[in-house]
């Protein structure tokens, strides 16, 4: 099984970060076929684009959905960008239209806040924007001028990824974010500061961005202690780790 097939399978079988309550949705109950080994992806190599491509394929290859439109760009009357609608699907079971927003995110818990490895990204901010802006774009006049529907489509939010805690700095894990219950089973990653590196006690193997979700099955050369950057890595037994600078999250770092 190649990495594209593994990622597709991961999307199909992995529960979201939040428990399923509207608008959150899961795809693990959608009938799908395995991704063909001949499938290629030649689009933007960033993880979010690859993820959206595979989500779209999973949904539209199922017997439940028909793709109506994707990446609908919206501009206001002055030509300024409002945003983009990820997917408009027709649910063939009930003949209703659905607006799907999909995202894959990785967050590290620090003092009660879930931060992205680049700490400018925070779960409560991302979730608020998806709920109050991105999902609401299909209600806007600019949307209905491009795609005429008899009513606003139902809102669907697919948010997958992984949540990380620092095993060397104990703190209570929040059970919810913005009133929505997190799935505790998605708190499976570890993170630590560079100064805590020696406490890990086993070799780590670096992950490229496309491997962040699925990990690696090739353990060639373990990484050295990183400096001046964050690193996402994995042990041979499959434990995911983020290593961040000691100044994180006060000075948001970037991947190099």
Beta-strand share of residues:
25-35%
Question: Given the helix and strand composition, which structural class is it?
Answer: alpha/beta
Largest sheet: 9 strands, mixed
- Separation of termini? 29 Å
- Whole-number mean pLDDT: 94
Would you identify the regions where 5 or more consecutive residues have pLDDT less than 50? none
Quickly count the domains. Answer: 1
Q: What is the H/E order?
A: HHEEEEHHEEEEEEE
State the helix count. 4
Radius of gyration of CA atoms, rounded to a whole number: 19 Å
**Would you count the extended β strands for me?**
11
Please tell me what the overall shape is: globular
The percent of residues in helical segments reads 10-25%
Task: Explain the overall architecture.
This protein is an alpha/beta fold and 256 residues long. It is built from four helices and eleven strands, in the order ααββββααβββββββ. It has one domain. α1 packs across α2. The chain starts with a helix and ends in a 12-residue tail after the last strand.
Structural topology:
Layout: H1 3-13, H2 47-61, E1 65-75, E2 81-91, E3 96-110, E4 113-115, H3 123-134, H4 141-146, E5 154-165, E6 176-177, E7 180-181, E8 187-193, E9 205-206, E10 231-234, E11 240-244
Parallel strand pairs: 3-5, 5-8, 8-11
Antiparallel strand pairs: 1-2, 2-3, 3-4, 6-7, 9-10, 10-11
Helix pairs in contact: 1-2
